[in-house]
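Supplementary Text 2. Reproducibility record for the structural model of the 209-residue chain.

All settings were left at their defaults, and a single model was retained for analysis rather than an ensemble. We include the record here because the model underlies the residue-level annotations in Supplementary Table 4.
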Amino acid sequence: MKGALLALLEQLHADRGLSLPAELLPPRVQQRARSTGVLHWPDLRRSLGRLPIPAMQGLVLAALHMRPALLVLDTLAVPPGQAELLAEWLDAAQLAAPHEPDNRRLRIVRLLWRFPARVELKPLPAEDCRAIAEQWLTHHPLRFASPRTRERFLRHLAQASNGRPAAVLGILERAAAEEEITPAKAITPAKAVAFHHESAYQYLVSPPR
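Retained model, structure tokens:
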């Protein structure tokens, strides 16, 4: 949880700056900030990372209240403690997050009523999944046993991803760990050796402003 808060603080600092009590910063950092007029993130990271979670959350909320913000989350399927943080973020910013409709845990249901706007995300066509993969392979070449194996792998990827971009990228990232993609590693997802990726992101929910 601390890692997520620290990552969010870094993004907020880059976007709008953070309002911090002077006592949070070591004297040398304070002096550097006075002389340059800038607080660089590397100077802040260690000090902020030592704060308790409520203090970090307070800094996040103060930054969100500076001006309108849109937070895009990976998922609403979070532990109870993080669900409490999300509820406070909803009071300070607009949130967008994927949600698995079968997840009816109480902590998630309590958040869902705050998201009256829901958009069902349709699976991408196979050709779009392939286009994403081709673009990725341009920048991250993989070694295939043959051109035929490459073609077989791309067909499998389009099928195994179920039309979900996150799954496409997940399959590619797992494939990148292999020294070579052989025919046995490019077969259908029914085989145990096939690459696969579970991505349950089906809905985008967002409160209107």
